[in-house]
Amino acid sequence: MWRDPVVPLIEAVDVSKRFAGGLGRESTLALAGLSLAIHAEKPSIIAVVGESGSGKTTLARLLLGLAEPSSGEIRYRGTNLRALDRDGRRAFRHDVQAVFQDPYGVYNPFYRIDHVLTTPLRRFRLAGSRAEARQLIGEALRSVGLQPEEILGRFPHQLSGGQRQRVMVARALLLQPKLIVADEPVSMVDASLRATILGSLRELTDEHSISVLYITHDLATAYQVSDAILVLYRAHLVEAGDVGRVVTAPRHPYTQLLVSAIPRAHLARDWLAQEEDSRRNGVNPTDAGCCFAERCPVAMPACLSAAPGLYRTEARRAVACVKYHEHPTLPPGDPGAVLSNGGTPPAPFPRFSG
Amino acid sequence: MSEPILRVEGLRVAFDHPLGKVQAVDDVGFALSPGERFGLAGESGSGKSTLALAILRMIKPPGRIEAGEVWFAGQRLADLDDEGVREVRLAGIALVPQGSMNSLNPVLRIGRQIADAFADHGLRLGRTEQERRVKALLADVGLPPTVSRMYPHELSGGMKQRACIAIAISLRPKVIIADEPTSALDVVVQRQVIATLARVQQDLAAAVVLIGHDMGLMAQFVDRLGVMYAGRLVEVAPIAEIIANPRHPYTRALIAALPSLERRGVLAGIPGLAPLLRDLPPGCAFHPRCPQATDRCRIEKPMVRDIAGAQVACHVA
């Protein structure tokens, strides 16, 4: 079995999350047996894409320690999050930071912007003096493309959504974490500002050696900024691997559907005509079978009897579809080289123009 | 060309603000042929939604319509009394407002919310007839009849948005204005909702105004596109012309801001920020962000010109 030679920073080992249903309702499976390893030594951006309800945010909350898995383990430097002692928890809270979706809701409107930047410095005693704190904050703001004198002393409502979201990135950066979990950081920001925020995430990785877990429903931006990608569908991992391969030559029928459903600014108007393909195919899904069977254009009887394994089709790609059953299976609980950034370093990344 | 179903001329909307007047819509005019799909694109704050509300005379104080005319099916809306305008809304021009899928009443069943539209417009129907019509409308938008008995929280985002379209088409309007109907949905569901909109539009032979900022969606759906910037229409042209040969630098920037699936590392933003409407720069409002701005752009406001079938408000186009 392939094993990471060094202990990863954060590791999900065969993690599932089930939300109990109240009042006689059925429980909901939010994440099914996912394994993932993120190493601090090889900073990279890992995108997690899927429709709403696919389990993206559940994965983020599990990795941040905001929710507990129903089965499996989340490990921080080899120790189960639940078993961390006081110092371990403190180190975890320092190393792993979050940037959330809503740049409007995360601020307390009564405090100046400075408040969200000075609090973490105080909590983790990162600055010896007020002057040092001001210098650290200034550096962090400048590295996300903001001028400290335009930001500090202001109230949240005086900044644009894009500026507020960049302040959140600067806040995360202040702590010099090893991993930032960014849950839909640009979905509430205008297209024109998206590039700037995603550009600052990319700089975190390239210049500050911070890994980013980029959670999004937008496959196109994931393709633009990330190194690796995980595609989720209804709690299940359906395809994972090198982002270039997965997006330009998707193998799983769901990934293929996702790529084809992106409307392109082309003269060819083929987008609506392909809509018929994404309807239900009349197959009745079974609990035991593949999660995508009822919408899959190439579903076979085998898809209903058993869930597909995770087949490693290439060195850096795995697909959960029975079409690829002749490839070796990744055993559950083993992230392998596909779901880990610990293997070969990612290809150098082209620079942004925006 | 046939008689336009909707004609907007010189429409100006202003909001009174203690710090000065905010010109949200500035001298906007366009015409819509029956059955045409027209797109309105631009960043947030460019006046797209305000324009939609102004067409339906739904601007509330401190906003006011300063000037301009709206003609629907040959009728000048300004000549109608309040009751007459109310008849045109929904029965003539239906609006699917932004975020409407989240404004369904959470304590009423979907069927009741659709039936309310009939009652509101004085249609007195028997119980069975009402039920039959509700189910027919649900079928029109591709929802099963059981949805009629469901509450909004039991539906997915795409289903809620289709329920909103069902309400919008309940009185068979001739114009459907859809304000960012799919901005909160993922791409697969977005395509289903837009396909639904295309289908009901064809059934009703209605014209559609689609408001949004995704140039990919516009390229795939509309026949003609109007690009708005700081309250003005800066370019109007057939969509093929816009995609193949965008003339206004802002139109080009909007298309370039779309992340490419062909080449990595070419994610481009639009430099700078959208201007404050109460403090617009002199000359062309886009000049501080425009890569081609000249001295003339900084002084003189560009008028709309005809360039090979496109209307463009730009000195350098």
Strand content of chain B: 15-25%
Q: Calculate the terminal CA-CA distance of chain B, rounded to whole Å.
A: 27 Å
* CATH homologous superfamily assignment of chain A: P-loop containing nucleotide triphosphate hydrolases
Counting copies of identical and different chains, the oligomeric state is heterodimer
The average pLDDT value of chain B, as a whole number, equals 90
Can you say what the CATH homologous superfamily of chain B is?
P-loop containing nucleotide triphosphate hydrolases
- The dominant shape of chain A is globular
Return the CATH topology of chain B.
Rossmann fold
Structural class of chain B: alpha/beta
Using the 3D structure, state the CATH architecture of chain A. Answer: 3-Layer(aba) Sandwich
Instruction: State the domain count of chain A.
Output: 1
Runs of chain A with pLDDT <50, length 5+?
Answer: 343-354
Total number of helical segments of chain A?
11
Indicate the CATH topology of chain A.
Answer: Rossmann fold
Total E-strand runs of chain B: 12
Main sheet of chain B: which strands, in order across?
Answer: 6-7-8-3-9-10-12-11
Please give the CATH class of chain B. Answer: Alpha Beta
Query: How large, in whole angstroms, is the Cα Rg of chain B?
Result: 20 Å
SSE run of chain B? EEEHEEHEHHHEHEHEEHHHEE
Structural class of chain A: alpha/beta
